[in-house]
Amino acid sequence: QVLLVESGGGSVQAGGSLTLSCAASGYTYRPIRMAWFRQAPGKEREGVAAAYSVTGNTYYADSVKGRFTISQDAAKNTLYLQMNNLKPEDTAMYYCAADLTKVATTAGLRRAWTYKYWGAGTQVTVSS
Fold it and tell me: Quick one: what percent of the chain has pLDDT higher than 90?
């Protein structure tokens, strides 16, 4: 079992920044990979960024490359998402996800169904 709790969401104006945090606990084996997803009303859940815990290899959706940075603090068992130059289209519920297995392809990192553990989400609202 992996418990994930997100925090750091809020409302900002376009061009602003937010840092999301995801505290992980309750596990015996450290998750192999963790990720951030987002879901806007009426839209599918979208993989935003992902990272392998051991190698540090990362993946970003094209829509956030150069603006968002995913990072991990192993000592604090916490995953972060630094979001800069936010745009109204970034408005969504942001979810932290984790899994104990690898995926064969980079595409798998952005597939929600490959993650077993999920947080409850934190809302990010960007106004123009």
Answer: 80
Six-digit token pair at 36?
Answer: 């951030």
Cα 114 versus chain centre, distance? 14
pLDDT tens figures, 28-75 = 888 999 999 999 999 999 999 999 988 888 999 999 999 999 999 989
Question: Rounded to an integer, what distance in angstroms lies between the CA atom of residue 99 and that of residue 23?
Answer: 14
DSSP state of 97: E
Maximum CA extent, the chain: 44
Alpha helices, DSSP H only, in the chain?
106-109
8 A C-beta contact, residue 108 and residue 115: no
